[in-house]
Every structure is written in structure tokens, then in C-alpha cells.
Design brief:
By secondary structure, the chain is of the alpha/beta class. Helix content is 52%, strand content 10%. A 5-stranded parallel sheet has the order 1-5-4-2-3.
Length: 189
């Protein structure tokens, strides 16, 4: 019987401590729920906004893409920017294969080698040395559909690793020919 009383006594002594702990947990959770909810709703709104922008531009992002929607420019947007005489033009780098560049490229673009191999990365690094790190840069390839391009992602990563802060990638959904040339945007051979 003493054992029963001891257990009952122990339980009754711990009960207020447990109740205080539970009350403290409830207070903490109550205080942080609005913070957590606000953070989640803000993230949800950002995600919805990004998805709407992607849909508007008809762009598909891949899970392994190193950029966000803010770092993508469409052919239409770039063409307008290049034809506007009042804006400072970005430096444009073709980061694909040289035979494609020779077949036709964006006027003023610089051939920087395919970024899918070390030799191309070395050429790219050599070509960008003279530019300031805050210069507006646009990278494009167009060798194949966007999600399979072996060059654009590595080129973008290389520019970021080199410290460039205003780098965009030209969204070419299928090929440079289909998404740039065939749409009548300016091409130089």
C-alpha cells in the first residue's frame, strides 16, 4: 500500500510541473503559428507568382536548373531589348557548338565555346575576363531542347562562380533555329 501511495504522491507532485510544461508549450506554439503561417503563405504566394510568370512566358523549369525565373529572358524580350536604341545592350555569349554559331547567331554575340567540356569552359573564362562583374550578360545555346542542353547550365554556373551578378539565360525551348531564326529575330552569319 505504501508503494501505491508513493506512486500516487509522485504523480500528484509531477502533475503541476507537467501542466506548467504543457501550458508553456501551448504558449510557444500559439506565438509561432502566425509567424510560420505568414512565412508559408508568403512562400506560397511567391511560388504562385513564379508559376504564373512561367506559364505566361511558356517556360518550363527543371528541378536541377541553377537559376530562377528572374534569370530567364525569352527570345521576344531579348529581341525587344536589342532593338531599343535607348537601352544599354547586354553582352551576349553563345555557349554552344561553333558550327551552330557559324550557321547564324544573335548579332553582337560572342562565341565562347561549348560549356559542356573543360576546353569550352576555359574559352568562356578567357572571353569574360575583360567584363565587369555587374555587367548585364545573356547566355544562349540553342543546340537542342532546353531541358537537354548540355551547355547552358554549366555556362551559367561558371559565370556565377566567377562572380558575375547580372546573368540571364535565353530560354530557347526547342532550338535556336525554331525559337529565334524562324520567328524572324535578327541573325548574323
Amino acid at each position: 500500500m505504501n508503494t501505491f501511495n508513493d506512486n500516487t504522491m509522485t504523480s500528484s507532485i509531477q502533475y503541476p510541473a507537467r501542466l506548467k510544461l504543457l501550458a508553456a508549450i501551448i504558449c510557444i506554439v500559439t506565438l509561432f503559428i502566425p509567424v510560420i503561417t505568414f512565412g508559408q503563405s508568403r512562400s506560397t504566394n511567391d511560388i504562385k507568382s513564379n508559376v504564373q510568370e512561367l506559364n505566361r512566358k511558356q517556360i518550363s523549369l527543371e528541378p536541377n536548373d541553377p537559376w530562377t525565373i528572374d534569370h530567364i529572358i525569352t527570345p521576344e524580350e531579348l529581341s525587344k531589348e536589342l532593338s531599343n536604341s535607348k537601352t544599354k545592350k547586354p553582352v551576349i555569349f553563345h555557349v554552344g557548338f561553333d558550327f551552330l554559331y557559324k550557321q547564324g547567331h544573335i548579332p553582337g554575340s560572342i562565341y565562347a565555346g561549348p560549356a559542356s567540356n573543360q576546353q569550352g569552359i576555359d574559352i568562356l573564362k578567357d572571353k569574360v575576363l575583360k567584363f565587369k562583374h555587374d555587367r548585364d550578360i545573356v547566355l544562349y545555346c540553342g543546340c537542342c531542347p532546353w531541358k537537354y542542353c548540355p551547355n547552358i547550365r554549366q555556362a551559367y554556373i561558371t559565370f556565377i562562380e566567377l562572380g558575375f551578378t547580372n546573368v540571364k539565360v535565353l530560354y530557347i525551348a526547342d532550338t535556336f533555329e525554331k525559337d529565334w531564326k524562324d520567328k524572324g529575330y535578327s541573325v548574323v552569319k
